[in-house]
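To whoever is on call:

I kicked off a structure prediction for a single chain this morning and the downstream step that reads the tokens threw a length-mismatch warning. I double-checked the sequence; it's 170 residues and nothing unusual in it as far as I can see. Pasting both halves so you can look.
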Amino acid sequence: MDGELQGSIRSANAEGEKERPGSGGRKPAIEGGIGAIDEIIGFHIRLAHGATYRHFTETFSELGLTQKMVSVLWLIDDFPHTAQADIGRRLQMDRATTMAIINRLEARGLLVRGESQRDRRRQTLTLTEDGHAALVEARRCIYEHEQWVRSRFTKREAGLLIELLRRIHE
């Protein structure tokens, strides 16, 4: 653990509060507060993810699509005739998850599999008319959801947040 983090966690006791036995030096939660965990980046990422996921789910409830399903439709629209393996790699999903999502989208008539013109061993994915219509509606919902998220930040802060989050996931 880096010294700054250790210091901020240890400094939780610097305000003269009694250390609880077995607390490892952590500050007891102040009434209504969350204590030293408030200094943990991962904790705040989890809370932010939960808030955005709940809003996304509410926004998309009538479409019956998950975030991953929408991402798959979007990529297929941006990269027509792409292969299933390419979708999984771009979205950082394992093969089984990718296949399950594509099977569900195909069963709903939102995409079709086809034979690659460049490599007959590969299957390509293409949106159907219904798939494109679902994506148009999903993009409308994403815009609404994105406005909800971005309303909490200035334009500069939103750009910085994206840059900082990329440092974690890339």
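Update from on-call: the warning came from a stale cache, not from the record. Cleared it. Sanity check on the structure: The chain has two domains: 1-39, 40-169.
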